[in-house]
Amino acid sequence: MDAEPINDVFVADCPGRHVLDHVTSRWATLLIGALAEGPQRFYLLRDRIGGISEKMLSQTLRVLARDGLVAREVEPDSPPKVTYRLTPLGEELAAHLSGLIGWIAASTDDIITAQGRYDAAKSRS
Amino acid sequence: MDAEPINDVFVADCPGRHVLDHVTSRWATLLIGALAEGPQRFYLLRDRIGGISEKMLSQTLRVLARDGLVAREVEPDSPPKVTYRLTPLGEELAAHLSGLIGWIAASTDDIITAQGRYDAAKSRS
DNA sequence: CAGAATCCCAGCAGATACTG
DNA sequence: CAGTATCTGCTGGGATTCTG
To answer: How long is the CA A49 to C1' D4 vector, in angstroms?
Structure first.
């Protein structure tokens, strides 16, 4: 309501830039991508995302929950059951990231080929 | 052609994961986004991307060039002129990232609101 | 099972200075 | 203008341990 907030990601230290940093942080992209397949429990997420530690999983989850992208649901059972799901806002984001992830899967071979060309050109002084 | 290479980003240390790391690295997303607006000179990119240092700009540019996403063109003039442009592969990527950047610009306000709710709920012990 | 807390290190990234 | 080189610090993130 007050003036217009600067959400342009190209401007340093503006809110939009911080959002970009959250969303493209090392694990957030994979986490959103994993949750796009459906709500999941903590340990399932850990198994799905190769290489993530429990610390980074819970830390990233907390940031995304704070941003309103992920919802956390606790069923108070004897063995605690906690489920994470995307919020509607998170689903929108997931659509974009899933597209990106799909493109990577399809293009990685081309990129590796390009790397080979680049390295070969460099080694020829 | 040989077997199937593992390009699934969810698998640790596979080629696809490395590509994801490049593409979502701190500056690469903004750099691709900036180049999506058209080929640009070095100093223009630096001015466009708030907060980037020359070191990180040239470093990120080099990684993306190696991946075959960005092309570097030198006109050997007295004042050196170097232009960077997206390759066709880079254009494909830019389409995905521009969508993401647009979503962020549109959703940042919602996210800030969510952060406020989250923090308020926490402070009430 | 689902985390929080602590310790600790590698490497990302910034500042500065120099070069073609 | 368009970088590279070096130095250094800061912090992202891993390993481990502990709790409800």
So the answer is: 38
